Amino acid sequence: MKRSLPIIIFLLCLIYAFIRYNVFKGVDYDLIPTYILNKSLSFASLILFALTFLPNVIFESFKRFDAVASKKNFSLAAYGMSVLHLVITLFILSPQLYPKFYSGGSFNVVGILTLFFGIISIVVFTLPFLASFQKMRKLLFKKEVGKIFRLAKLAYLLSLGHVITMGLSGWFNVSDWPASLPPITLLAFLVSMVCICMSISVTIMHAYQSRAERAA
Prior knowledge:
The chain has 216 residues and is mainly alpha-helical. Helix content is 75%, strand content 2%. The protein has a domain at 5-111 and 176-215. The protein is built from 8 helices and 2 strands. It is globular. The model has no long low-confidence stretch (mean pLDDT 89).
């Protein structure tokens, strides 16, 4: 189940993107293999990254999920999807498909920041990705592996910057949402916030319990 979950999440994201953009927004069906697929990849990768922030106790509450193995599986799948998302974006990037990125035929601030955060987040996450393989870990990182894995959190914050700069302007224009379906960027951001808040809450709870045990 844990190995198939990234595929299930991707398929659900693809279905949502198809319904929102093709069915209700009127995007050409010819763009499903490129534009719609690209949105689905970005959506799924952000959700999978967010799931790695969930506390281990949540994974361990399900008998079939090992926390460490599941988080590694989600991270690798998310990295692969994000790289594919970047490649497709560079191929289809144009004022016709991404008008909010352009002003007068040139990149505007939104376009520049969106691309900057997106590319840098993938570059930063490449290091933890390589460190997840034992041979690469011994060859490149040696004793610094702990610091390298912490870079994944920085990469995720950068990816949230990518999402915010790209989608913020449309998050509050509810009247413009096709069939009242929220933008993918907003949904990805909300999922991320839920996972991060759950992680922070569990950390605070454990710290409080440890302090209480020491005081007892």
